[in-house]
Amino acid sequence: MTLRSAAPDPFDALPNPRGGAVRSAELALAEALLAFEQHSESTSALLRASHALREAGWLSAQRFADALVRLSPLADEGDSTHPTHQVSPADTNSARPAFGAALRDFRAALERHNLHELSCSPSLFNHYRVLCTHLSEHTPGSTVAFEDLALSGRPVPPVSLHAQSADQLAHLRARYERALLPVLRSQPDNSGAALAFTNAALDELDTVLAELAGPDPYDFWRLAKACAKALRVSGRATGGADARRFYARCNLTLADHAHGIERAPRSLVRATLALLWRDYALFGAAAEDADQVEVLHDYGLTVDWHVAGTQASEMLWEADAVQAQTISVTRTALTRELGVLTVNSHAYEDFLQTADASISALTEHARAADQPEKADPSEALQAGDAAYRLGAAASALGLGHVALVADALGLAWRRRAHAGVSTPAVRSHVVVGAPAASTLEQAAEALRAMLHKVAAGVAPAGSSAALAALTRAIEQGGA
Description:
This protein is mainly α. The chain folds into three domains: 21-80 and 93-150, no CATH class; 166-298, no CATH class; 329-475, HPT domain (Four Helix Bundle (Hemerythrin (Met), subunit A)), CATH 1.20.120. It contains 20 helices and three strands. It is globular and about 60 Å long. The protein starts with 20 loop residues before the first strand and ends with a helix. Mean pLDDT is 85; it is low at 1-9, 80-92 and 422-430.
């Protein structure tokens, strides 16, 4: 089972002591918080934070900051303690308390320098949802979902519902619906016979999802099966609104499947993928999580692997990480500036060494991919893994733009590998379009240019053209 942090604080992941820091955003948030507490205007400071986060490529954090920007005038209006404020009945629903809590926790999270936490933290998302709820009172019709933060800027491929017999689908749906009701009614504090009953129902749901899963690498039921297992491993399969929504939406999709629908709804795919990624992004994966991690790789997402063998060793590692973070902040001689990003010098040098090997491999794979007679799915998988290594290293260092393009390139290579599967039993089901070799090569060259800037000590801007081309190839099923 994946380990969890034993830290008592409300956030959801360990700090990243060697990760890059957006100091200008941190200072701007500190200024905004001080202004808020002194009943002054905080919008201008929040805007500076948002701009800095966008420049760094921290897109999920920028999205959160933008919500704070939009709500800040309403929070100021709701300040019933301000000397000039006239109390009205509307003040009982003031946005000010929610705004203050979100700003404080967002500032604390940003200083942990963990991009996975900023994307996938349930605590931050709860704040974000409350902020957007207050905003929706003034802009009706707006909605917000966890995947909006978690998958911000990431391409998501189309996902199939492979053909099955009507009788088989009807039988599986009947079993699914019988098991679904006790899961929807379960409570987080269930114990004894109630807990055993719920677990038996979850076992049945897992079995049905496994029977539904087809051979396609981008079959929705394969993704749903992995998500259901991740929810159970994390202890989040019962009692939570997100788990209930997932299981209920799967039931609706099963009905669509029975009516001959061939593609899963994009919104459901994104929601399921974000739930699958959430705990592995925050806490890492263990050896027994390999199947779920493989599914994540098929969708362009990476995780860290656990090395701590016990909870005690995990706590010791965390204490060392906090100490290292303190040292890295105080010893400014050990840092370098890459635009708005301040990085640890040793981590920066390590990144450049590993990035050089990855980008060379990616360029060679892309050139070889232009020769159809030499197409080899295993080579494409190796190229995808090289891109993911680069993306994970860039994310750990705080290079958000680099990480986003590298992960998208890894996903494109994965789809090329699956499109080239030669097993006859699988080929009849595969609906994956292979991204063009030219798209892969252009993305590799764009990454190389970004890395040259990093090596020269210059902040790389986002490669919007390369990312847009990869997104088209991934989401439209081909070149």
